Amino acid sequence: MSVKILIADDHPLFRAAMCHALTSVEHLELVETSTFPDTLSYLEDFQDIDLLFLDLTMPGNEGLNGLAQVHALYPDVLVIVITAQEEADVMAKSFALGASGFIPKSASVECIIDAVNTVLDGETWIPPTVQVPSDSQQNSAASNASSVSDQGDFTARLKQLTPHQLKVLRMVSDGLLNKQIAYELAISESTVKQHVSAVLRKLGVINRTKAGIAFKNAMHLN
Questions:
Q1: DSSP letter for each residue of 92-149
Q2: Which of 37, 45, 57, 104 could form a disulfide with 86 if both were Cys (CB 3.0 to 4.6 A apart)?
Q3: What does the pLDDT look like over 87-97, one tens digit per residue?
Q4: Domain containing 185 — which CATH number?
């Protein structure tokens, strides 16, 4: 049985290098996208992807927003983050948001192949030069969000949100009012208020302003 992998990256040469690196792995079917909207469209239209290589800085993907969206919409798709951002904080946030692997773009072919095999075996893969993040490290991934309560890590809590709640939170973080959110999503203002209340409860914050600030901090790559 073949495994279908989607390589989502905006650099043709890098996609070609990834495809070449994976030619030695048996029973793989590779497809490619170059923008985040195209990636979401492919996932929605075909829904047959087993593993997604996701570039954090491809067009349409702002920071870790794309990873959060994919996990909310397609929780069964395994995601390996591929990025030039090699900071430990970015990696910790990626794992907290549901990534199964984290590959710096400087990684060798051997590392890429090992990452695929490891993740498909149901385990987490990180660069061999980096220590596995401890619980305390993951819990500090969103430490800049100082308004969040002490109960766990804010970034990990984002995984509790439904796709609609995540959209509402993203719009709240952009400063949109309930009326504006209702218009953008074609839902009632009352429904928006229900989503906001649910978001605040799940994230453990006391108001929408604090939720928006914490979300932006959690999604930021630096």
A1: HHHHHTT-SEEEETT--HHHHHHHHHHHHTT--B--TTSPPPPHHHHHTTTTT-TTS-
A2: 104
A3: 888 888 899 89
A4: 1.10.10.10
